[in-house]
């Protein structure tokens, strides 16, 4: 049976983008790769807090938090070999707090210059001024 790092898969928004000051998440699937050791590294403008949960089914949940925005590299190695697409380049945006709760609704498909346009912003539990 074929085994090795080339059979490990990883995915999730935390490997594409993230936000400073909050946990960003992704998943890693090692079941097809056979027995081995998974190593995770994160390099960038600030040190990362990394949390790793083995689901005991050949997959794991990874979450990380960094304090500074910027470009980071997430390295995933299985038995000391990079998995496909590793290291992942991830842009971490500045913290937006609860602004991620805001949602724009009924935004017009088109607008005219110097004419008012109406749309709604749903607060979804957030408080504060726009």
TrEMBL record:
UniProt Filamin repeat ranges: 1-92
Keywords: Repeat
Keyword Repeat: yes
Family annotation (InterPro entries): Filamin (IPR044801), Filamin/ABP280_repeat-like (IPR017868), Filamin/ABP280_rpt (IPR001298), Ig-like_fold (IPR013783), Ig_E-set (IPR014756)
Pfam (any one): Filamin
Biological processes, Gene Ontology terms: actin cytoskeleton organization
Keyword presence, Manganese: no
Single Gene Ontology MF annotation: actin filament binding
Family named by the database record: Belongs to the filamin family.
Record's protein name: Uncharacterized protein
The species this protein was found in: Pectinophora gossypiella
Taxonomic lineage: Eukaryota, Metazoa, Ecdysozoa, Arthropoda, Hexapoda
């Amino acid at each position: 049976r074929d085994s090795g790092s080339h059979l490990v898969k990883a995915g999730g928004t935390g490997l594409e983008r993230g936000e400073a000051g909050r946990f960003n998440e992704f998943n890693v699937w090692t079941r097809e790769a056979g027995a081995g050791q998974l190593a995770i590294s994160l390099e960038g403008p600030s040190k990362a807090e990394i949390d790793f949960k083995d689901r005991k089914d050949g997959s794991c949940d990874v979450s990380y938090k960094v304090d500074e925005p910027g470009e980071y590299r997430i390295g995933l190695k299985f038995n000391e070999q990079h998995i496909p697409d590793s290291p992942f380049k991830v842009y971490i945006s500045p913290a937006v707090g609860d602004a991620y709760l805001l949602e724009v609704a009924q935004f017009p498909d088109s607008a005219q210059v110097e004419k008012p346009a109406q749309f709604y912003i749903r607060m979804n539990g957030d408080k504060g001024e726009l």
